[in-house]
Predict the structure of Homoserine dehydrogenase.
Amino acid sequence: MSVPTPPRTIHVGLAGLGNVGAGVFKNLEQNRDLIRQRTSADIRVEKVVVRDLNRPRDVEVPEAMLSTRWQDLVEEANIQVVVELIGGTTTAYDLVCAALRAKKIVVTGNKALLAERGQELFALAETCGVPIYFEAAVAGGIPIIQVLQEGLVGNRILSIHGIINGTCNYILTRMSQAGLDYQTALAEAQEKGYAEADPTLDVSGWDAAHKAIILASLSYGFWIPASHVHVEGVDKIQAVDLKFAKRLGYTIKLLSVIRADEQGLVEVRTQPTLVPLSHVLASVSGSFNAVLVSGDIVGETLFYGRGAGQDPTSSSVISDLCEAAAVLVYGARHSGFVPHGLYGKSKPIEDTVSHYYLRLTVDDVPGVLAQVSTVLAERHIGISSVIQPEDLEDTSGSTSLVLMLHDARLGDMLQALSALKALACVRGEPSWMRVETLQG
Ligand code: HSE
């Protein structure tokens, strides 16, 4: 392969000049010479689509480059690569489809779009003969997509455990280390530019779940339907649970778990989960993300870095632009996603199995523990430890019971929770979370 000289110019259209878009524009400029030397391509943003021409911005873009019509990026024959950073699943979908049909390479950081419509978008990319690249869609600056597509391509993926939402990790870290309340911690994360435009996506767990769907689909070769993913957010976590978790030797992380069982059924879930304090994932703090990938040949590998924010995420977009430049300079690659597990199946949510943490507020009278353990035993759920923290007893005659439970099917656990709520001695809503021991 010969290196072209002088460098080829790659003409890019950028849709979205928010936090990440501005970072791409700024950092492409900052490292232009280095990128040109490494890729033999001079990557030039030619047109930028924004929602409001008059909005103050982080970067100075010549007025002549700005437009409010996304169609301009598709209609302009000169543009070879369209970068979609507007988010959402409506206009972004129209833009990506139109760009592919116009034979332009697409780069996107839009995890919701890929999680919901990835299957049809990659099929369209295949038909149109142009790829979609999406490194920025998962784990901000960590190049985890390349890891799965290239670095670990020879491995069967046994499991992935990921902390893949910077906002939630920031919130949990600040609640647990600085004693902040949930709202204050969320406001800080928004101020630092980690949160999505609609932070509900972050705190509901769905942003991480979208990323987990992408990682699972790359690992197992078929698109996992969102309805088969068990998702819970951080918005209901109480400070008292962080305190008990610590007392039991754990911390709470919004953890995404992806794994296939012996029958090949793929489980995908994203929930607040107790993680042992002694495990390396417990020390992933603030907006940092970490993805622990276990492959049948390589064993365990761990990838760590900033999972949100302008510069880290723009680093991933720039990596995709360089990949696009390589295609344009040296020739075609695959569409971005190669389906290879068309007969794969995802595991029904109720059949997923884990240990659990359970905190109940109960009447402080004799016989309560016997009633609780009977309800659990009837669903074949074993108790591994119980604590009744004296410092939480109140004067209204109730007390807390904190139980650690052995492996149980989620279906059995949900039935047990309903039965526990119906007991006269149980007050209010039980608080429960999965526990991952992360051993083996
Ligand atoms: N809102 C996301 C996060 C940004 O907090 O992780 C990166 O996807």
Summary: The two ends are 44 Å apart (CA to CA).
